[in-house]
TrEMBL record:
Family recorded in the similarity comment: Belongs to the DedA family.
Membrane topology of this protein: Multi-pass membrane protein
Location relative to the cell: Cell membrane
Record-linked InterPro entries: DedA-like, VTT_dom
Pfam families reported for this sequence: VTT_dom
Signal peptide from the UniProt entry: none
Protein name: DedA family protein
Highest taxon listed in the record's lineage: Bacteria
Major place of residence: membrane
Origin species: Streptomyces cinerochromogenes
Transmembrane segment boundaries: 12-38, 62-85, 156-174, 180-198
UniProt KW keywords: Cell membrane, Membrane, Transmembrane, Transmembrane helix
Keyword check for Ion transport: no
Length: 212
């Protein structure tokens, strides 16, 4: 029996290849709490690396399949998340447990209010945790279906294709880079968390000011 850890990108890619990319990206793009525990950035980038072959080793994944599955998973997951929020509403979001989920919901609401539908749905795709709740929040807030579909598709395609192609470019440029997938995943995690840094600093400054 094949044991697969859905939170481990290497395990998912080894077991399911491009299909695993589709399923995980779909879940991470809108299935609320489930998506919080699944790799997104840390799956797409290594998948791109494994699409690059060398003189010594052929590609382990087909680039066109990974690109297609990543795009389909991102866009379909975003739409399902929107429908969950639209039909479940704020009551569903209020029932979600965990401080991380509630905090991400609040950030998603602020992002939509500050930047509007287009910018928020594109920017939010590139922020971990936020992209999982952004689409249900948009549905719960009553964002119109047509602009939502347009901009979440733009954001989903940009995010998914950029990460896969970045991994592919690195894999094609650096020999045996796939031997260092674990350190690469760690780098991707750090880079993907950078958008959260300014807000974390503001929150820390606010807490310090309030305690003075």
């Amino acid at each position: 029996m094949l044991a697969v850890n859905p939170m481990d990108s290497a395990s998912v890619l080894a077991a399911f290849g491009a299909l695993g990319v589709l399923v995980v990206v779909f879940a991470e793009s809108g299935l609320l709490v489930v998506g919080f525990f699944l790799p997104g950035d840390t799956l797409l980038f290594p998948a791109g690396v494994l699409c690059a072959g060398s003189a010594q080793q052929p590609p382990r994944l087909a680039l066109w399949q990974v690109l297609l599955c990543a795009a389909v998973g991102a866009v379909a997951g975003g739409q399902v998340g929107y429908l969950i929020g639209r039909h479940g509403g704020r009551a569903l979001l209020a029932r979600t447990s965990g401080d991380r989920v509630r905090h991400a919901v609040t950030r998603a609401e602020r992002l939509l209010a500050r930047y509007g539908y287009g910018k928020a749905l594109v920017i939010g795709r590139f922020v971990p945790l936020l992209r999982t709740v952004l689409h249900p929040v948009a549905g719960a807030l009553g964002v119109p279906a047509r602009p939502f579909t347009l901009w979440q598709t733009v954001g989903g395609v940009l995010w998914s294709q950029t990460l896969v192609l970045a991994g592919y470019t690195l894999g094609a440029s650096v020999p045996h880079i796939d031997d260092y997938l674990l350190p690469l995943v760690a780098v991707v995690v750090v880079v993907s968390l950078l958008p959260l840094l300014p807000e974390a600093l503001r929150a820390r400054r606010k807490r310090r000011d309030s305690s003075d």
